[in-house]
Amino acid sequence: MNCAIRINPLQDSSNSKKKAVSVMYIKKGIACIAFGCDSANTMNSGIFGEGSWLGSLMIHQPLSIHATIEELEPVEAICFPKDKIDILAKQDPMIYKWLYHATVKTQQQWLLAQVTSLHDRHTRVVFSLLEIARLTKQVQGSYTKVNASQKQLSTITGISRPRLNETLKMLELCNEISIERGSIHLIDIEKLRIRLNVLNTTIEIG
């Protein structure tokens, strides 16, 4: 599409003062988009990486959403401004099919985030670790690595640093993870996945 604009980093596109409405495609990197409120510790966080589409759900909605964005890996994205999308849609109705395609997977990610936020801190932490790991390019033959600091995980999960540290230490004592400065290694992914079985009562993770 001739309407595409490369942006880097993702934070540049999230400045609410710009009021720019667009659809974005993440070409590289990992980012978490989190919504929460000061009066509760619940956080609704979507974790997105290479191949993710953002903004297609809201492009024709008169809403301004204020979110916290955490870049876990530097993001390079391609931006499709709404005004140019509208021009293309008048020329080719298949643009709406593209917008629908861009919406489906994002909806699934947000639904998972909402369901996970209903559960305890252990479930929320494990879910976040596995989601980040899924989007991270790994070194073959090594333990799965998650490049996220405890500060970032606290923002993503909505869990205070002390409570988050307790949860991570518990998982480390169970030999399921190994904690390093600025990163976490997933030692036993199968055991971590079993901890997410509680989500199956609400939604099945494929």
From TrEMBL:
Q: Taxonomically, which superkingdom?
A: Bacteria
Q: Give the GO molecular function terms.
A: DNA binding
Gene3D superfamilies according to UniProt: Jelly Rolls
UniProt GO BP: regulation of DNA-templated transcription
Entries under InterPro entries matching the protein: cNMP-bd_dom_sf, RmlC-like_jellyroll, WH_DNA-bd_sf
Identification of the protein by name: Crp/Fnr family transcriptional regulator
Organism this protein belongs to: Vibrio sinensis
